[in-house]
Amino acid sequence: MKMAIERGIIVIVGLILQIALSLGMYLFFIENFYIVYVFFKIIGLLLTLHLIRESKNYSYTLPIIISLILFPILGTLLYIIFYRNKNNSKTLKNIKQSESESKKYLVQNEKIKEQFKNNGKMRYLSDFAGYPITTNNDITYYPLGEIAFKDMLEELKKAKEFIFFEYFIVAHGKMWDSILEILEEKAKQGVDVRVMYDDLGCLSTLKKSYPNELEAKGIKCVVFNKLNPIAGVIMNNRDHRKILDIDGKVAFSGGINIADEYINMNSKYGHWKDNAIKISGDAVWNYTVMFLTMWNAFKKEDEDFNKFKYDFTNKEEPQGYIVPYGETPLDTEITGEDVYLNIINQANDYVYIFTPYLIIDTDMINALTLAVKRGVDVRIVIPGIPDKKIVYTLTESYVEPLVKGGVKIYKYTPGFVHSKVFVSDDNVATVGTINLDYRSLYLHFECGCYMEGVDVIKDIKKDLINTMEKSVEVSKSDANPKFFKSIWQSALRLVAPLM
Q: Does 335-498 match 90-324 at the fold level?
């Protein structure tokens, strides 16, 4: 906590200085206020028109548009501080370049493409999101982090060539210490061990000098997007992915980070309901490319990714389709939300959802309630015990219109739900890191795994049903907030995209 406070103070001071500079400019021009006001009014109008034209989602850009219209001077200065062009960031330019260069490694098998040519959801992922569909895989679903953790340790012990490790949060404790012990041993054996974690995610858990400690153990380390008090908008773009890739043979992903609460040790929020998946097969390559793309944006280390590709023996009768996919704020696709919307819009029987946060736009609200009107059984499981009270209040504000629209909302009373899962019609599912909130859908680097026609889908559905049995359904009366709380929720919605 001391580390987080010290580093947080530096960042806050930097932001205060930027705002102070902005106010200083305002006071400097106060004598010519009318001229300055008209000038900024015009600038604010132009910026508003720019946001309307370029916005991927108007709900997301609404707070800055309101500030530009009502307070053109302050709004313009805040736009410069918090929303300036991402192309000005060296870090984001490097990532964008690396993403562009890595596309050549994500090639769709034409025989498989012929099989799904009439499937719109998979055509979208292959043709527009750019992630190849695969059939030659084995996949395991873990309904709890502690179950997945045991298999993660066993697979790590088998590593012979490389271990790629990319997580939003890493914290000292039994989980990380057990993993680190194996990573250190494997590094001594000559295995290429690479660890990447997000600087903000680990603000309160790891020292600023921790990469040096890992390097001393023979473990390569990249800290994603180091906090910078003058970084502005770039600080919003975090690496929220969870990827463990071992020799290109096995990959783990899902909701769990690397901290003890994710395996139900020392959880402050009751029982921690999370999940993970393990894949062995051709789909692992998508995760390998995702990791190497991000790694080489910071360290230009690999001229040819193909040396990390494992050649799997083809199954005689491959079953179903699996496609790990990434979400990036640097392209024109909103892949995470589009995958979710495609599942909802094409559901016929049911859609069951796990999400820790429910801070959604009108497109998502309309899709969920329209599905109900089509006769689809739509159910969403959210936490019963919140980890962030203000964010939870926001989540509750979206419960009201959904429940009134016929969506069934369940609160997991034993504790906190951290899973991010959709399952529909016994045939389609996606498991990953993408929350139903603005940060995951528009700001963060994320990953998910879409699957269709695979046996493991029945395990995912079973997990949701079992969890709902331990939860309480929110009634219409419970969803309807009291007067003052409704005002507070409405105010929070204005700044929801910033939270």
A: yes
